[in-house]
Amino acid sequence: MVEHSKKNIPRPTKETQNYWEGCRNHELRIQQCSNCDEYQFYPRLMCTNCSSRRLKWVQASGRGKVVSYTIVHRAPSQAYKEEAPYVLAIIQLEEGPTMMSNIVQCDPENVMIDMIVEVVFEDWTEEISIPKFRPINKELPHLHLYLKI
Q1: Does residue 107 contact residue 134 with C-beta atoms inside 8 Å?
Q2: HEC sequence for the chain
Q3: How far is residue 137 from each of residues 110, 125, 142, measured CA to CA in Å?
Q4: pTM (2 d.p.)
Q5: Fewer CB within 10 A of the end CB, N or C, for the chain?
Q6: Can you tell me the distance from the alpha carbon of 40 to that of 14, in angstroms, rounded to the nearest whole number?
Q7: Model pLDDT for residues 41-86, shown as the tens digit of each residue
């Protein structure tokens, strides 16, 4: 396990406990409203679509696409210095909601909008695993090289 002790380790709350338990089991869980069937992320006490409190936890597909990203060249602290440069991205999940995460297992310069990605988990402690995303098709990121001509 890579050293993560100096990083900002998430602390589960009543609202997020089920999400973090899923991550620990390498499952990406999101909420779905039992009233209107909308999916949502980040965890909340009520549906952002219809305000119902009838929410259930479901396992997401773990697939999505990059809708926005930036490459971080200067780490915010020493704890993240070894990772720079790294990609911070907004991922639209297949189910609809968006989440912020990192794109990994790919050169930061090869990340692009609409890149199809899948979730992978990085174990930071015995209790906390962080969801990150990697390209599904390793050949696809090189496509943009031909499009720039």
Answers
A1: no
A2: CCCCCCCCCCCCCCCCHHHHHHHHCCCCEEEEECCCCCEECCCCCCCCCCCCCCEEEEECCCEEEEEEEEEECCCCCHHHHHHCCEEEEEEEECCCCEEEEEECCCCHHHCCCCCEEEEEEEECCCCCEEEEEEECCCCHHHHHHHHCC
A3: 12, 29, 10
A4: 0.86
A5: C
A6: 17
A7: 999 999 999 999 999 999 999 999 999 999 999 988 898 899 999 9
